[in-house]
Amino acid sequence: MPIVRRGMRGTENPSNSSSSSRLQVLTSHLLTPQTAMASEKEAALAAVPSDSPTIFDKIINKEIPSNVVYEDDKVLAFRDIAPQTPTHILIIPKVKDGLTGISKAEERHSEILGHLLYTAKLVAKQEGLDDGFRLVINDGPKGCQSVYHLHVHLLGGRQMNWPPG
């Protein structure tokens, strides 16, 4: 049975100094939407694809707090710390299994890929995004992927434009 949560995960006291300092480090480069986009591009270009543990592994292991909105045995969904839309949620598989990006997907990943998309639909409904939403998967440096743990961005709460980025 899925768990729907609203609140911090991991360190329960958001004013905890170590949690607070970690979040400050993570968000220190995100001062404005323009610098956030530039910093995200820089982070993507600097990121090195690898199977090493990522910030998402730390969130899954409760080493870093997050605002979880949905969790089941396969995926975790939590609010982005630097939202680009009124609703910006990241949906990640709990087990990476070599799936550092969508370009690394193999046939054996079909079930989790489908589950990520189905979860996005459930979370969008839970968030009241009845008028529509966008799903984004960044892949590789030119796709602006900065964390090499497959993740789906659920974006909504405002009118989207086309073409994106």
TrEMBL record:
The HIT domain, residue ranges: 55-165
Catalytic residues as annotated in Swiss-Prot or TrEMBL: H151 (tele-amp-histidine intermediate)
Q: Could you tell me which PROSITE patterns the record lists for this protein? A: HIT_1, HIT_2
Q: Which InterPro entries match?
A: Histidine_triad_CS, Histidine_triad_HIT, HIT-like, HIT-like_sf
Where is the segment annotated Disordered? 1-22
A single GO molecular function term of this UniProt record:
adenylylsulfatase activity
Where exactly are the transmembrane stretches of this chain? none
Extract the SUPFAM superfamilies matched here.
HIT-like
Q: Where is this motif: Histidine triad motif?
A: 149-153
Q: Which domain of life is it from?
A: Eukaryota
| Record protein name field | Adenylylsulfatase HINT1
Q: Which organism is it from?
A: Sesamum calycinum
